[in-house]
Amino acid sequence: MKNNRFRIVSLLLAVGIAAGLFGCGNQGKESGHKAAEEKDAVLSGQKDGSEDSKGSGQQGMQGEMSGNYYSGEYDTLLETGSVDKAAAGETAVYYYKWYAEGGKLFKYDLETKKTEQLPFYLGEREGIEDFDINEEGGLTVVKYVVDEADESLFHYYIITLDKEGGLLMEQDITDFVQEERDLTSNPYVYLYGAAPGKDGRVCVHSLFRVWVFDREGNFEFSVDTPENYICNMGTLPDGEVAVSVYDLLGNKVQMLDFEKQDWGESYSDSHFDDSLAIAQSREGIYFYTEKELFSFDPESRTAAVTADWIKNDVLGDDLCHVSVFPDGNLRIVTSDATGNGGGTETAFLKLTDAGLREQREIITMGTIELTGGMRSAVTAFNKKNDKYRVEVIEYAQGKNYQEGTELFHAEAVAGNMPDVMNITDGTEEFYASKGIFEDLKPYLDGETGIRRSEYFDNILTAMETNGKLYALSPDFTVKTLVGKKSDVGEGYSWTLEDVAALKKARGGDVEMLDHEYGRKVFYLFLYYNMAQFFDLNAGVCDFDNENFRGILEFAGQFPESNPYRDEDHGELKKAGEGELLLMEGEWSMIRNYSVYRRIFNADISCVGYPGNFPCGSLAKGGDVTLVMSEKSAQKEGAWEFIRFFLEEEYQNRYTTGFPVLLSAFDRKAAGEMWIDYETGEKQKSGSVISNADKEIQIVVEDATQEETAAVKELIGHIGRMERIDIQIINIAFEEADAYFAGQKSVDEVIDVIQSRAKIYMNENR
Fold first, then answer.
1. What is the secondary structure of 550-612 as a DSSP string?
2. What is the pLDDT of residues 311-327, one digit of tens each?
């Protein structure tokens, strides 16, 4: 694959570089044909009498998005597996795929529907960084070659090929990249993308600089962006080249001015997000993101939505090429971005009257923000289900996250919920106490439910509240405290008395927790044990007991304020050298267990957070946590959509944490051991994890069978989910401060916390 290029990859990047890299998203996306004054999305609270809004439990909300409607003609390029790059012309689609023995370039003829490998051969240490179709209809390519002496260094070549893959020009440009390394004193300068420009030019970019070469490969000029990260670039009509750049204020587009040999016009718009890419077009300027395609008018500097991807059953996360034709039709290429069993296809999307769309029953699905996993699920469900169609209401669209959350809260409390809601901020218990959620347990265990024996049944049971299942998460992470077995013993739980004994037995310079102080200890031990003291749904409020008193008094034994010093070692180094007994962990991969064993350089125990529970570790729902409105008029369809998240397609392809489906967990475990599903061969490991100050580096090896079994056994012991009420946490913290400052006794503080918590509970049940 493209990312497996013999580089030593740090899993914990320096903060500045990480922000730039992670802000760049997918390459090659586009925009479209709608009137500029059209609104983006109709959100809740707007009355609508359309057919699409009838029959849902939405109470006056509607999820219809802006943009045109398209009908599609699809061709499969690969049944399974992804490609690393694709570009489409009028008669052919070109795509590149990296293999262990070297990369291969293919041409798919759109008329004959046949695929052939082009005679452009790459060796084991060679690959294509980027390519695109140039103005002659051939290909402009950037090739890399891994240095034999130093595998962190790359040699780069710009190449032009004819339509059949014949070599026309090849020029070594490694010296320009090396000069940038020397100039910035940064050994990790690489090329990330390219675009063909006017008059046969070739433009390439690193994170901070663009180089421009003529059609013979001669250097013309370069420009840099010292305060921005370059995400990608693309070619506009007439050979103009646009560059998408990112800084802390957001994304913008900068044009290259070939005559001035400098930056030209700069554009910004509210539609520009961190996945912004440039679409290919012969006339008009189009950009696209993971959510939408939109046209851009450089005179008015405004964008107009052409296509809402999810509305047209296109998974924006998988887009790797978009072309916009003068008649408004589109040619796209999508490739499974997860690498988990999906394929690669090209589609011709024809602009179509929305009235001709097949009519299905509408299920409304609300979410604060539409994340990749949810976008994937809605798209996949809508493509395969011929009875129901899910329409999305994104409460934060055109707003910030807090505004979106407040809007949903107001609508939910007023009873204006969509059929299905995705809640990921931990407030599902608060809403469940209002009686506005449907109990999903009868559906889960009914005729259209699942076989619990095929799932982590204990995790599904942990999602219940007093025997009812109001919220369902298709995947989860494990939250725990980890220490050496020699320090914390074996098993999956411990008590506050055990922690106190460990504190007493430790050496004078040994910390229990990194930068331990009273408020931090209090927060950890209360946050993850809240269920012992407060349950809004069950009407339980009991802070006046010995367990809570013990947590408060134990936290009071630590310094009042954070003892951090600039000269302190990092957490990894302290743990590795025996100066730190416990580390917090949130695990979504088996390899996380392997990493902690290597950090401590010893066998470890996941004892979790001390309390009166059989297992101190707990599960946390992933990016998706689904609830159904008790008022929904489409409960059968709503459940069919929710159940999709438990089926193999979603569990194998779109989960980001541990899947609840056992077979998907086993498949993920095998994948973490770097088994190539196409060849069955084990691949190289050896990534490096380090903390920001580089005090320690740990080579991450393959997860062993023993480690896989240990994680699976840990998960099997978990009996609760992370559920909190932030208002109660705030009450406890506000009052505990007086105890830590020595202003009140522990009993006085507990009395106030109990009183305030009880008032809050009575007001909100």
1. HHHHHHTTS-SS----TTPPPHHHHHHTTSB--EEEEESSHHHHHHHHHHHTS-EEE--S-SS
2. 999 988 899 999 999 99
